[in-house]
Write a structure and sequence with these properties.
Number of domains: 1
Shape: globular
Structural class: alpha/beta
CATH class: Alpha Beta
Bound molecules: glutamine
Radius of gyration: 15 Å
Distance between the termini: 17 Å
CATH superfamily: Class I glutamine amidotransferase (GATase) domain
Order of helices and strands: EHEEHHEHEEEEEEEEH
Strand content: 25-35%
Strand order of the largest sheet: 2-1-3-4-12-11-10
Length: about 190
């Protein structure tokens, strides 16, 4: 198994470290040539969705990655990665890869005071720690997207086929359970 980590901006190193801990080989996607290598799953890290979206276009990664995800490539987006995958962003005119049937709210907890830590139930995993950093939440899932976790009545994780998103940052925790879930999705890729 080979996991590609989008490494244009944001918290990509933490995902790579998590994969290393789990003994899973990974490499970084930084430019067009990198996606010529074979990979089984893609992680889109937290950071700034606007910056990552702009760089994806400038580096001509946008369309090929969008096509791969639409064709079933397993993808895991955290925080800004969630925004990049959302079909709708309620408080932003922009959308990006737009492959997932979710309506997200950007900086949903406020810009300055929006960072916090909590614990909540995650479907099929149980209680896990969750760190939110200027996070979005999911206002609505539709079609075949399903909510996997909620905090204060807001959806903070969802899955649709081979796509998984979290509003929080599982790569910052000791618990590797959400990454394990993603790797399991990669291994059992749905057609
Ligand atoms: N606020 C960021 C955005 O809008 C997301 C924050 C994060 O990824 N930690 O893209």
């Amino acid at each position: 198994m080979q996991i590609a980590v989008l490494a244009l901006q944001g918290a990509f190193i933490e995902h790579e470290q998590m994969l290393q801990r789990l003994g899973v080989p990974s490499f970084e996607i930084r430019n067009r040539e990198d996606i010529e290598k074979p990979f089984d799953g893609l992680i889109i890290p937290g950071g700034e969705s606007t910056v990552q979206g702009k760089l994806l276009r400038e580096l001509e990664l946008f369309e090929p990655l969008q096509e791969m995800i639409a064709a079933g490539l397993p993808v895991f987006g955290t925080c800004a990665g969630l925004l990049l995958l959302a079909k709708e962003i309620r408080n932003d005119d922009r959308t990006y890869l737009a492959t997932m049937n979710i309506t997200a709210v950007r900086n949903a907890y406020g810009r300055q005071l929006g960072s916090f830590h909590t614990e909540a139930e995650f479907a099929e995993i149980g209680l896990i720690p969750m760190t939110f950093i200027r996070a979005p939440y999911i206002e609505r899932v539709f079609g075949d997207a399903k909510a996997l976790a909620t905090v204060d009545d807001h959806i903070v994780a969802a899955r649709q086929g081979n796509q998984l998103v979290c509003a929080f940052h599982p790569e910052l925790e000791d618990s590797a359970s959400v990454h394990r879930l993603f790797l399991n999705m990669v291994q059992n890729r749905q057609v």
